[in-house]
Amino acid sequence: MIKIQYLKFLLRALILIAALFIAINAIRGNSNQESTKIVEQHEEVKEDHYIITKEFIVSKLTSRSQLVSMEQDFIKSYTDVDKGLLGDRYTELTVKGKYILGLETKDIEVKRVDEEQGIIYLKLGKPTLISLETPYDQVEFDKTKGWLRLAANEDEEAKFYKSVVKDIRKRILSDDEVVKQAEIHNKEVVEDLLKMSPGVKSVIFE
User: Fold this and answer.
1) Segment (H or E) for 140
2) What torsion, rounded to 10 degrees, do the Cα atoms 158, 165, 139, 134 define?
3) Across the beta sheet with 119-123, what order do the strands follow?
């Protein structure tokens, strides 16, 4: 009789221990979940309050030497007049090409940074001609006048071509409309680049 009571006591004790073990594990699990939620909330708050600095903006802008903002195809014709004893010879050159405009990042001045509001104040430099493509194999030469004269030879054509390219390069940045468009595109490119960074809400150009 005593043995039966003793066995019942042991069984109850084992059941009680098992129940306590399950309860303790459940409490630990809830505690870990709460800790995870606290960490996640802390990270979200940290991201929402991301602080931007002038040094960060400068390094972001100067991470590349140039920013491309505008690309334009063109076709231009020029006429060369060569005077001679047998009359004047007119040679027409038609050149097809493409130019790319943009901005030298070293010419961007970070005036100030409003860290609380996330506003960047900048002053941009003048647009720059990043590249000019005028493939020589696509250039067309045509003698339009001076039938008694021989057509221009290779040296004359090459000299004419070089003078044309030089003139095109000069005219691009002296064209007020082209420069105006480039300035607009430069602002858009810089703004898009900076707004990719957390904490930057607005970019103001002075």
Assistant:
1) strand 140-145
2) 120
3) 109-114, 119-123, 202-205
pLDDT digit string, tens, across residues 93-102: 999 999 999 9
Across the chain, which distance is largest between two alpha carbons, in Å? 145
Q: How far apart are CA 206 and CA 122, in angstroms?
A: 6
Burial category of 200 from C-beta neighbours within 10 Å (exposed 0-12, middle 13-18, buried 19 and up): buried
CB burial of residue 91 (10 Å; 0-12, 13-18, 19+): buried
Which residues, in sequence order, are CB contacts of 47 under 8 Å at separation 6+? Answer: 198
Helix, strand or coil for residue 116? Answer: coil
**Amino acid symbol at 173:** L
d(CA 110, CA 55): 9
The rounded average pLDDT for each run of 10 residues, N- to C-terminus, in the chain (206 residues) is 55 62 55 40 46 88 93 96 93 97 95 93 96 96 91 94 96 95 97 91 95
| pLDDT tens profile 174-202 | 999 999 999 999 999 999 999 998 889 99
Distance CA(154)–CA(97), nearest Å, equals 21
